[in-house]
Write a structure and sequence with these properties.
The chain has helices at about 1-65, 65-80, 85-100, 105-120, 125-140, 170-185, 200-210, 225-240, 255-270, 290-300, 320-330, 350-360, and strands at about 160-165, 190, 215, 245, 280-285, 305-310, 335, 345. The protein has about 350 residues and is α/β, with parallel strands linked by helices. α2 runs antiparallel to α3, α3 runs antiparallel to α4 (about 105-120) and α6 (about 170-185) packs parallel to α7.
Length: about 350
């Protein structure tokens, strides 16, 4: 009986060991499957991001085609016609850059820097000089600063984005495009019709709110914009809205009144949400060129502009305005409009911009 008991116990141990091994193998298999799934998920995520980047690059490529055809082709032709790097070469280059709306002051400082680099590095190769030109134009935008092209969100409550700009630059449409982008990111959005004076402004924004499927607050025509904003923010707080988009009037011809109105709006917003508005975004129509720069300077005098949204960049051959804005105003470009569709608003990316501009030279 003793031997049988020992054999039985031994067999029992073997069964338990086998079961334990099976369980371990099962766990190992599950771990392997989990690891495989995680790897697949990572690959899919990477692939998705790569596709997204490629789509963005295509959008920049298409959106900057007019500027590229006008500006870069002239630059390529200049280099083909030129045998030596002379003063005449720099004069022609200066004209080409000014015609691209980079801005006279920006161009003059750029040419001086380029001449200095040609002399210091003893550059004689025109192909290499092309690369230097692209590098230096990139430096104009970066200028040893931290690029803050991302929207600053409020970590403790609703984020308020205040939109300013003259009438006719695409402000209402831009608000709708920003709302659409935020909705796709999973955020809840509320629009406030703070332009209570321009005929049709409220109706237009309300129609966009329906299309984008977000909350909307309006007041009576001619009512105090700040009271409408107050009601809108209260509603957003009650409904736990993530982002509030505020439209404002664009009557720049009377700067004193507009400044007072914006000051009052800012006080009301800040009294309800500490630190708000998180962003004051100035809308500029890229097709207006240097006139857009003048508008930006005027708005910068009357309110704290934190970022630029550049619309209709695809509709102009003077896309160099992006560089002029940064150099002359030192305000980052946050978004650019590269088409008329609701999805054709892109967060600004200097590397994609430079690629879209100079791809024919690369």
């Amino acid at each position: 009986m003793g031997i049988f008991k020992n054999i039985k116990n031994l067999f029992k141990k073997e069964i338990e060991t086998e079961k334990l091994e099976q369980e371990n193998n099962k766990e190992e298999k599950i771990k392997q499957e989990v690891n495989i799934n995680e790897e697949i998920s990572k690959l899919e995520e990477t692939e998705s991001k790569e596709i997204e980047v490629q789509n963005d690059i295509k959008l920049y490529d298409k959106g900057l085609s007019k500027t590229r055809d006008n500006f870069v082709n002239k630059l390529i032709n200049l280099n083909k016609r030129t045998k030596k790097i002379t003063d005449e070469y720099f004069e022609e280059l200066e004209d080409i850059l000014i015609m691209a709306d980079i801005g006279v002051n920006t161009v003059l400082s750029f040419i001086e820097r380029l001449k200095k680099r040609v002399k210091t590095e003893n550059i004689t190769d025109l192909d290499y000089l092309q690369e230097v030109i692209v590098d230096e134009l990139f430096v104009i935008y970066v200028n040893n600063s931290i690029l803050t092209n991302k929207i600053k969100f409020n970590p403790t409550g609703p984020t308020v984005l205040l939109f300013v700009g003259v009438n006719g630059v695409g402000k209402t449409t831009t608000i709708a495009k920003v709302a659409n982008k935020l909705k796709k990111e999973g955020k809840s959005v509320l629009m406030i019709a703070g332009d209570t004076f321009r005929a049709g402004a409220t109706e237009q924004l309300e129609e966009w709110s329906r299309r984008v499927n977000c909350s909307f607050v309006k007041g009576k025509e001619g009512s105090d914009p700040s009271s409408v904003i107050y009601d809108g923010i209260k509603k957003a707080q009650e409904e736990n809205i993530d982002v509030i988009l505020v439209d404002t009037a664009g009557r720049l011809q009377n700067k004193v009144n507009l400044m007072k109105e914006l000051e009052k709006m800012n006080k009301v917003i800040n009294s309800l949400i500490e630190g708000a508005p998180q962003e004051t975004l100035l809308i500029i129509d890229a097709t207006t060129g240097q006139n857009g720069i003048s508008q930006a300077k005027n708005f910068k005098e009357i309110t704290d502009v934190t970022g630029i949204v550049l619309t209709k960049l695809d509709g102009t051959a003077k896309g160099g305005i992006v560089l002029a804005i940064k150099e002359e105003l030192d305000i980052p470009v946050k978004y650019i409009g590269l088409g008329e569709g609701i999805d054709d608003l892109e967060p600004f990316d200097i590397e994609k911009y430079i690629y879209g501009l100079f791809k024919d030279m690369m």
